[in-house]
Amino acid sequence: MSTEHGLPEREGMDYDVVVVGAGPAGLATAIRLKQQAAERGSDISVVVVEKGSEVGAHILSGSVIDPVGLDALLPGWREEADAPLSVQVNDDHFYLLGPAGGIRLPNFAMPPLMNNHGNFVGSLGNVCRFLATRAEALGVEIYPGFAADEILFDDKGAVTGIATGDMGVDKNGLPKGEFTRGMELRGRYTVFAEGARGHLTKQLIAKYGLDAGRDVPKFGIGLKELWKVKPEKHKPGLVQHGFGWPLDGKTGGGAFIYHMEDEQVMVGFVVHLNYQNPWLSPFDEFQRFKTHPFFRDTFEGGKRIAYGARALSEGGYQSVPKLSFPGGVLVGCAAGFVNVPRIKGSHNAVLSGILAADHLAGALGEDRGHDELISYEAAWRSSAIGADLKKVRNVKPLWSKLGTFIGIPLGALDMWTNTLGFSLFGTLKHGKTDAASLKPAKDCKKITYPRPDGVLTFDKLSSVFLSNTNHEENQQVHLVVKDMALQKASEHDIYAGPSNRYCPAGVYEWIEEGADAPRFQINAQNCVHCKTCDIKDPNQNITWTAPEGGGGPNYPNM
How many other β-carbons are positioned within 10 Å of the β-carbon of residue 196? Predict the structure, then answer.
């Protein structure tokens, strides 16, 4: 128990394993632990804490889902009455786009690992809801609406669990009438499954030097809309990927359009966050993409029904940090297990949960706790996860260094040769962090985006409305600017305020009118928890912290 600033002591509960995050990795870990316990004739107590208001509320992914992870975790899932995936990919298109048209690339020229046939189109949020029911049936305790706010350590520096954030704290940090103290959830081991750029994972990497000897982390921002289209335009199982326009040849990224069930179509856009031009707006590039003559007809006459955005890990094989530390492990996108050219990470998330659980169960079976699971760290590169990521390890650095028109063909060549067991490039380095990649605004061409038409293209605020984002208004701002003078002198004066453009939710504004202009305004209620500001701010001057549990987006089926 602990007492802070005169506040009452936290209550606490003890478990064998505490899991932070009810995404595919965290839930897979919990399920596999219970499966292992049943096989061993013992019990393993497991709790999962989730900051979203419900399981799946903060889950956003493409999603074309490789079922290899689900097949390994729950072999009979396809026959279940409530199986969350039913539409398999039956048509797979790749396009190189220009402003007026494009070229469809022949499927036979694509490396085999890019083939999507046999994968499913569907909602990863609904997959997580399905996994949660299976976890709870096995005896896992799941607490949505509670944000893990603090890591707990023992006097030897080992992780002993987490504390959830206090509820009912006003914007000045003072308890309100409905104040409730956070809970301590203590475990013999703690699993961090927070997704890309998790705020606790970030602290662990710094505390234990988990990135020592690793390449720099890299990220992208993924933006996504869900549309209800006209029946005659709906082609269940059709998967389309495009790269090139509207991005220039130096900027990495691309688009996807996936046809799922019930006349629903997912459209999304990814921009690699090592882009250089501070005038670029990923949100507005996404809106422009939908006007491309190849694709706009899909959406004309339809209705946009959901919107969201999330950062994704793009460093891959060479950027994965050390996964173990005293008292805990990293799994899923917190570990950086996304396959960038495939735009897929959920399969590796589930596989990493299985792998971690197997090593955790072994340690618990030996009555261990709060030590380091070095065996898990040693195992992942020789696992299916390592094999998946190693084949594509040079795609991102080639694209970043050489641009779209040279880097992508060379990346494809490298994927082909890796399929045969060798690489012409070895393992390439990523170079700068995403924060260090921006150029001063004076050295870049200003980009003027067309006004949204409200039919095919939209503004940020109407989009945030569709994300069902909500935060208690009278709470502390969870986006912390460490040095406001630096924000003015650098982010505004040198880089022309890119936070206004890289944020996909209209959180940041530079108010240029009034006596105190320019003034940096943070509209924290709009935050969709994408973490882009924590990654892309050129001075690393903005830190994303956890708001009250249950705040943020409420995605129904993203």
Answer: 25
